[in-house]
Amino acid sequence: MKRMGKVACPACGKHDLDLCRYDAMLVVRADLALFTLACPACGTTVSTLQRIPPQLREEVRFAAIEVGAGMMGR
């Protein structure tokens, strides 16, 4: 896994992979998730622990409500 910040493909080195184009997201806490996404340049599957981007926070919040997860008060 890469450190927090910019996401780069370990196979081809493409930088700035878009977390909003994730294939899977496992929420660890209200502001942090494990993202899995495909590199658009080479197709490699990349997994990375990152802060949840602001544009995804409402989606995460509503998903938590739907499944009864404990993040609803945040």
What does this 3D model show about the protein?
With 74 residues, this protein is α+β, with helices and mostly antiparallel strands. It contains 1 helix and 3 strands; from the N terminus they run E-E-E-H. It has one helix spanning 54-67, and strands at residues 24-29, 32-38, 45-51. Strand 1 and strand 2 (32-38) form a beta hairpin. The longest helix has 14 residues, at 54-67. It is elongated and about 40 Å long. The mean pLDDT is 86.
Give the overall shape: elongated
Largest sheet: 3 strands, antiparallel
Q: Tell me the number of helical segments per DSSP (H or I, 4 or more residues long).
A: 1
Percent helix among the residues? 10-25%
- As residue ranges, the low-confidence spans are none
Structural class: alpha+beta
Strand content: 25-35%
N- and C-termini, Cα separation: 27 Å
Order of secondary-structure elements: EEEH
The average pLDDT score comes to 86
**Number of DSSP strand runs:** 3
Strand order of the largest sheet: 1-2-3
Radius of gyration: 13 Å
